[in-house]
Amino acid sequence: MFKRSSIFFKDLIYLKKWDIIIIFIILVLAGSMYFFSFNKEQGGVAVIYVSGDKKETLSLLEERKITIKTENGYNTVQVRDGKVRVIDADCRDKICVNHAPVSFSNETIVCLPHQLIVEVTGTEASVVDIVAQ
Ligand SMILES: [Zn+2]
Fold first, then answer.
1. How far is the CA of 59 from the centre of ligand 1 (A)?
2. How much is the pLDDT for 57?
3. Measured in angstroms, how far is the CA atom of residue 90 from the centroid of ligand 1?
4. Are 84 and 78 in contact (CB under 8 A)?
5. Residue 27 is part of which domain span?
6. d(Cα 106, Cα 2) in Å, to the nearest integer?
7. Would you put residue 81 in left (φ > 0), alpha (ψ -120 to 50) or beta?
8. Together in a domain, 53 and 118
9. One domain for residues 27 and 72
10. Cα–Cα distance for residue pair 105/65, rounded to 1 Å
């Protein structure tokens, strides 16, 4: 009887230890998410990829509108007010057209039917670094 209750007591301590660890992990995750959400970096350029190949690099500082032709159709990409968006496309789902404009680093707009990706990255200088690698 004594032995049994002591095992129970041990288990209880063990559980509590894990509770504390889990709570700690959740706090760290929540804290880092909070930190990153306030550290969103305004991107400098939008890079357009088709089937993984880099097609165009657009500065977010310059208003511009270009049409990218892919094997499967076209996407018209517009830069305006420091944001990039797909304003027109002949893809079947129109998910890219309906996507909100993006302007922060690492934000993307994807057009799956055309295998087109618009990705916002840091500054023009950081893009040069990527190319140099
Ligand atoms: Zn699309």
1. 22
2. 95
3. 7
4. yes
5. 1-39
6. 59
7. left
8. yes
9. no
10. 20
| 12-57 pLDDT per residue, tens | 777 788 888 999 999 999 988 877 666 678 899 999 999 999 999 9
Measured in angstroms, how far is the CA atom of residue 113 from the centroid of ligand 1?
6
pLDDT of 124 reads 53
Looking at the fold, whether 126 and 85 belong to one and the same domain comes out as: yes
Cα of 95 vs centre of ligand 1, distance in Å, is: 5
* Cα 29 to ligand 1 centre (Å): 33
| Distance between Cα 40 and ligand 1 center (Å) | 25
Distance 100 CA to ligand 1 centre (A): 13
**Conformation bin of residue 52: beta by default, left when phi > 0, alpha when psi is -120 to 50:** left
Q: For 88-131, how does the pLDDT look when each residue is reduced to its tens digit (9 = 90+)?
A: 999 999 999 999 999 999 999 999 999 999 999 986 555 555 55
Residues 84 and 64 in one domain: yes
Output the CA 27–ligand 1 centroid distance in Å: 38
